[in-house]
Amino acid sequence: MLTDSTLERLRILAESAKYDVSCSSSGTVRRGKQGMVGNTVGGVGICHSFADDGRCISLLKVMLTNYCMYDCAYCVNRRSNDIKRATLSVSELVSITMEFYRRNYIEGLFLSSGVVRNPDYTMERLVAIVRDLRTVHGFNGYIHLKSIPGASRELLNEAGLYADRMSVNIEIPREESLKLLAPEKDHQSVFQPMKLIQQGVLENKEDRRRYRHAPRFVPAGQSTQMIVGATQDSDRDILTMSSALYGQPTIRRVYYSGYISVNTYDSRLPVLKQPPLVRENRLYQADWLLRFYHFKVEEIVDDLHPNLDLELDPKLAWALRHPEAFPIDINTADYEWLLRVPGLGTKSAWLIINARRSCRLTSEHLKKMGVVMKKAKYFITCHELTASTLQPLRGINELSPERLRPLLISPRQQRLAEQEKQLTLNFDD
Amino acid sequence: MVYTFDGTMDGLLTAVFDAFERHEQPEALLTTGDALPLFCERMHEVVTDETRAQRVWTGLEKRLSREALRLITVSWLSEMQELNNPLFMYIFKTFQQPAEKPSIERNFADPDVLSVTNIARKVLHEQLRMKQFVRFQKAKDGTYLAVVSPDHNVLPLIIDHFADRFRDQPWMIYDAHRHYGYYYEGSGHPVRITFENESEVPFSLSDGKLNDDVLSNDDHLFQDLWRTYFKAICIRERINPRKQLSDMPRRYWKYMTEKQ
Ligand code: SF4
Fold first, then answer.
1. Would you say residue A385 has pLDDT above 60?
2. Same structural domain for residues A48 and A91?
3. Which of A13, A67, A68 to mutate to test the pocket of ligand 1 (most atoms within 8 A of CB)?
4. Per-residue confidence at A166, pLDDT binned at 50, 70, 90?
5. Which of A95, A118, A280, B23 sees the fewest Cβ atoms within 10 Å?
6. Residues B208 and B157 in one domain
7. Per-residue pLDDT tens over the stretch B61-95
8. pLDDT value of residue A143
9. Domain check: are B189 and B207 in the same one?
10. Whose CA is nearest to atom 2 of ligand 1?
11. Among the three residues A278, A300, A322, which one is the final residue of a domain in this structure?
């Protein structure tokens, strides 16, 4: 079954798949079943390892084949690239997945593919693999399947019965930019399969209300990814798209992938000496604010600030733009307002809410609860800061945001932001 | 007033019982054999008593939520000396609290409650790491073996997960540091095991590797595939050892196939 060349082909197809940054195995809780192997744990899923680039390895992320008939400018696998091409057979993929899983290397499989012959032909092969895993090999672990744009509704519907999560990547937030880089694609080709999957999920929910044993359809919902820095699209373009997507009932995660100059010869693309990692990180922080901190996208980016501040995390940037919202009284403020305080996260907000039922909190308490007082102290009042006159309060309003800003930027952050501006400069000219 | 106890959970619970019986609040709880503080005038040696311990625990069950009780049990698995005093005080104060008042379990402004909670969190964090980083090898007889040596005694917290996940395969996870493990037959419940003569086990305690004569034939192949995959999936333009180390500290590497 496995031959001498399997190892080399696995290497090629992992290299081809690695630019898809989605890694998580989240969103489904499914206990083990008699006669099957595997379960899924829900929550954030389990990362089994961390590669030398620090990224989590949760699923076996691999392509069925990296041959592709399309020529998307930003993709290593585009047909005009001269790279090693390979294909794994259905039985090879199934066997590697099962054996990796049984050794606790992975949570499951994240399978994608280049498009060969036509979308349905390719999708059929993908479906064959996941069907085999579930029905022949009793695999009950996590499956994330990237759907092939243009594949038929029937195939999507079958795939959804085996996959926990499905995804279609938007890649480029503005349609003009997408058409420039991937003339064979448009937004319709991305949103159409997303919509079909969504319909499937919603119909399935309905079915399950009526018949409790109806099989589940894509229970972990959908995810997507946008490439950052391959086009002129602003953070506002990106985050507005994310926010609209999170408004959909089945989109669970949006990933951001700092563009890596894979195809330097293509003049439509910038030549970056280094992927824009600081920007990518700021986007993840902003995404986090959208999902867990009750922020609206207009509060994070707007006409005046279409791009995130590279030197500051977006929550701190918001706070500096809104001195009038502070100081926040730790002993009385609502949970939502506690979350607005720089240096204070969901965990410490929860600790505060519980602790202040029993006593008035001081900065000593906050420190022990893990609040980053270096940042938070300019934005809050708490027991002794209001009660004592010994230590006059110098918060954001006394200091002014302009004078406070340099105090809150670490030299390291500043250096990284500066470097990144330098290295991506040639794109702006 | 200083109490000494034998370092067991029952001993600690007995200490609480003694403190109430003797109407006093000790300044410190030490493990027998610890160096005593310099000006220690009065001492009480706690004699572990299962009945007393049980009575204290039953009392706790009445006063604390199930979640708080679980956190206490979990914190105990930390095996950290620093836990003894805060845990003793947490339990002591729980009984001092008038019955009509809410329990102190969520008063995180109380340094003892916060310490116990934080230590329990550390343990829970490490049990997650075991679920992440355990690596099995397959033996010729079909058993999957993994060796670990966690900082805290987390095996009891993870075996249900592994029994549920790998329910159709026999496995064993062995804690080389604490010299015990769990064996799962492929059905039923995992059982706790120890080896009478640990030096004769067919695997290495220092790197977890199964001896070649018992390793299944294709295991090397899958290990190689995994190591190849691990290297291939890394994006060289993004190399970030700092992040890798913080998410996967080096002390776990020695048993991990991809890092061997
Ligand atoms: S269709 Fe997918 S694999 Fe093919 S070139 Fe475009 S992005 Fe790459």
1. no
2. yes
3. A68
4. very high
5. B23
6. yes
7. 999 999 999 999 999 999 999 999 999 999 999 99
8. 97
9. yes
10. A114
11. A300
Q: Which of residues 228-247 of B touch A (CB under 8 A)?
A: 228-244, 247
Examine the domain organization and report whether A250 and A175 are in the same domain: yes
Residue A77 Cα, ligand 1 centroid: separation in angstroms? 6
Sequence letter at residue B143: T
Residue range A254-273: average pLDDT? 89
Which atom belonging to ligand 1 lies closest to the Cα atom of A182? Answer: 6
Whether residue A280 sits in one domain with residue A397: no
A100 chain-B contacts, CB cut-off 8 A: 222, 225-226
For residue A115, name the pLDDT band (cuts at 50, 70, 90).
Answer: very high
pLDDT tens digits, one per residue of B197-206: 999 999 999 9
A18–B234 CB contact, under 8 Å: yes
Same domain, A294 and A339: no
Q: How far apart are the C-alpha atoms of A192 and B147, rounded to whole Å?
A: 48
Identify the CA nearest to B2 among candidates B10, B76, B35, B21. Answer: B35
Q: Does residue B244 share a domain with residue B140?
A: yes
Tell whether A277 and A325 lie within a shared domain: no
Residue A420 falls inside a structural domain: no
Which of the residues in chain B have pLDDT under 50?
A: none
Query: What is the interface pTM, i.e. ipTM, of the complex?
Result: 0.94
In tens, the pLDDT along B148-180 reads: 999 999 999 999 999 999 999 999 999 999 999
Phi, psi angles (nearest 5°) of residue B70:
-65, -40
A68 touches ligand 1 (CB under 6 Å): yes
Do A50 and B109 count as a contact with CB atoms less than 8 A apart?
Answer: no
* Identity of the residue in A6, A11, A54 whose CB atom sits nearest the CB atom of B240: A54
Mapping DSSP to helix (H, G, I), strand (E, B) and coil, where does residue A17 land? helix
Confidence of residue A426 (pLDDT cuts 50, 70, 90): low
* pLDDT at residue A424, as a whole number: 62
Same domain, A278 and A343: no
CA distance A37 to B225: 21
Residues A234 and A113 in one domain: yes
Number of structural domains, chain B? 2
> pLDDT per residue over A92-109, tens digit each?
999 999 999 999 999 999
Residue range of the domain that includes B80 = 2-126
Q: What is the pLDDT of residues A328-365, one digit of tens each?
A: 999 999 999 999 999 999 999 999 999 998 888 988 89
Domain presence at residue A126 = yes
Secondary structure class of B152 (helix, strand, coil): coil
Ligand 1: centre distance to CA A72 (Å): 6
Q: Is the pLDDT of residue A387 over 50?
A: no
d(CA A35, CA A19): 35
**Do residues A333 and A210 share a domain?**
no
In chain B, which ranges are continuous DSSP H helix?
A: 9-21, 50-63, 66-76, 84-96, 111-133, 155-165, 219-232, 241-247
Burial of residue B59 (CB within 10 Å: 0-12, 13-18, 19+) is middle
Which candidate from A2, A18, A357 shows the least CB-CB separation from B221?
Answer: A2
- Predicted pLDDT at A92: 96
Q: How many angstroms is it from A61 CA to the middle of ligand 1?
A: 16
A150 to chain B, closest Cα gap in Å: 28
Ligand 1 within 6 A of CB of A114:
yes
Query: Token pair of A306, please?
Result: 């279409």
Structural domain boundaries, residue A64: 4-300
Residues B119, B147: one domain? no
CATH of the domain at A34: 3.20.20.70
Residues with Cβ within 8 Å of B19's Cβ and at least 6 positions away in sequence, in order, are B3, B25, B26, B92
d(CA A289, CA A284): 9
- Give the distance from CA A385 to its chain's centroid: 39
Is residue A428 a part of any domain in this protein? no
Which pair of structure tokens corresponds to residue A95? 């066997």
